[in-house]
Design goal:
The protein is α+β, with helices and mostly antiparallel strands. The chain has 4 domains: 85 residues, Uridine Diphospho-n-acetylenolpyruvylglucosamine Reductase, domain 2 (2-Layer Sandwich), CATH 3.30.43; 119 residues, Uridine Diphospho-n-acetylenolpyruvylglucosamine Reductase, domain 3 (2-Layer Sandwich); 107 residues, 2-Layer Sandwich (Alpha-Beta Plaits); 78 residues, Alpha-Beta Plaits (2-Layer Sandwich), CATH 3.30.70. Strand 5 and strand 6 form a beta hairpin. The chain is globular and about 70 Å long.
Length: 452
């Protein structure tokens, strides 16, 4: 009897139309959002539910072919890219959302549901979701959990782990881990859900999640503040973090506004460019906007400002932040660094970073922005070849000297494995290896990701 091919066996599980083998059909699944990390998939398979995921994992295990779980593919570190002919297990078809519970303030969502659809379901119930970022139309629940995404509202609501009640996943031996829906209080041993969050698809394929929702805020207001120096902006951050209605506080350098204005063909918000900007949003009950104005009046060192309290005007201010990634990509393939440093160190880190980049690559261009309320900076360097990793060494070691982390919310992927020891001790890395081996002894799930 002729042995059936892997694509044929997978087609028996998900149907022939959901098994992609042609190069032009696979191509979008073989490169990450930055364009730096790419590979070749043996096949791309798109299951419809947990049972099909289980069957796919079983088939791959029997065939001895490793697989790469993939969500919206908006990652920046190559964590969802097939590097050595693996099967790409795309969860995009698993996009159902149900059990929006206004009493428990929770929702159950499949791994392929986008952030935007999750937010829409929450709004329809008069609620909100605590995590938000610009890739909301593409990023999926499973990917956000796998990388423990944070986003613009971390300063108020925290990251995905904070929103998680329970996670369901398929393990490497095709068994089901976790229980969805779960319970907010369930103190019965090891927290498997928390372990899966941030595991980058190396311990299990996340299939569903039970997530906490938040109260919807009837009033919003935003402000864009300009400063002559980053240190002055950080002084303002220190003051504004105490404001009880604060929901976001973003930092941008002057290049951010320049490239967004050019890319979108819009006029800059102020008559001249400044060194550093803060984009602040407040949200709360009636009177929040007025209280926000009072709070802003106490900020010192501000060279110019624009304030908005109506939705269209707020959106116009946010375009200066949300338009940055697209404007960067239009200029070339960037080297992206998602790092964290203590808030008080941001100014010194920026000064030293610019010196380091100039020393390594004098003609390179820096675009710096991020979440000032938690010290998470997105460092973008343009003008280097995609495979030139000199900047990684310089940036990550500088982060280390400031007591920071080489990854804040996008994970380690394949891009940062070499430098994991700058953030994690040898004992911690070995413990992670033992956990990986216990749950995936054959290395079936996302091999080569996270662990050096």
């Amino acid at each position: 009897m002729t042995r059936r091919s892997l694509p044929d066996r997978l087609a028996d599980v998900v149907g022939p139309s959901h098994v992609l083998t042609e190069p032009d059909l696979k191509s979008g699944y073989e490169v990450d959002w930055t364009g730096r990390w790419r590979g070749e998939a043996a096949v791309v398979v798109l299951p419809r539910d947990r049972d099909e995921v289980t069957a796919v994992v079983r088939v791959c295990g029997e065939a001895g072919v490793s697989l790469v779980p993939q969500g919206g593919n908006t990652g920046l570190v190559g964590g969802g890219v097939p590097c050595a002919g693996q099967v790409v297990l795309s969860l995009r078809r698993m996009d159902r959302i149900w059990d929006v519970d206004p009493v428990d303030m929770s929702v159950v969502a499949e791994a392929g549901a986008t952030l935007a659809s999750l937010q829409g379901s929450a709004r329809a119930a008069g609620l909100g979701f605590g995590v938000d970022f610009a890739a909301r139309d593409t990023a999926t629940v499973g990917g956000m959990l796998a990388t423990n995404a944070g986003g613009i509202h971390f300063v108020r609501h925290g990251n995905m782990r904070r929103q998680t009640i329970a996670v369901e996943a398929v393990s490497a031996d095709a068994s089901t881990l976790g229980r969805v829906p779960g319970l907010p209080k369930d103190n019965t041993g090891y927290d498997i859900s928390s372990l899966l969050v941030g595991s980058e698809g190396t311990l299990g394929v996340i299939t569903r999640a039970h997530l906490q929702l938040v109260q919807a805020d009837p009033e919003r207001a935003a402000a864009l503040l300009a400063f002559a120096a980053t240190e002055e902006a950080i002084e303002a951050v220190s003051h504004l973090r105490r404001f009880r209605h604060l929901s976001a506080i973003e930092i941008l350098d002057d290049t951010c506004l320049e490239i967004v204005a050019s890319h979108r063909g819009i006029a800059p918000p102020f008559p001249r460019y400044h060194t550093t900007y803060l984009l602040i949003e407040a949200a709360g009950g009636v009177g929040c906007a007025e209280a926000f104005l009072d709070e802003l009046s106490a900020v010192t060192g501000c060279a110019d400002s624009a304030v908005a309290s109506e939705s269209p005007d707020i959106a116009r201010l946010w375009q200066w932040r949300e338009g940055v990634p697209g404007a960067i990509s239009a200029l070339g393939i960037p080297h992206k660094f998602d790092v964290t440093v203590p808030i008080r160190a941001i100014g010194r880190f920026e000064d030293e970073l610019r010196c380091e980049v100039t020393d390594v690559a004098p003609s390179a261009r820096i675009v710096l922005f991020g979440h000032a309320g938690d010290g998470n900076l997105h460092v973008n360097v343009l003008g280097l070849a995609p495979d030139d990793d000199r900047m990684e060494e310089a940036v990550f070691r500088l982060v280390h000297t400031h007591g920071g982390s080489i990854s804040a919310e996008h994970g380690i992927g394949i891009a940062k494995r070499r430098w994991l020891s700058l953030t994690r001790s040898r004992a911690n890395i070995e413990a992670m290896r033992r956990i990986k081996h216990a749950l995936d002894p054959g290395g079936l799930l996302n091999p080569g990701v996270l662990l050096p």
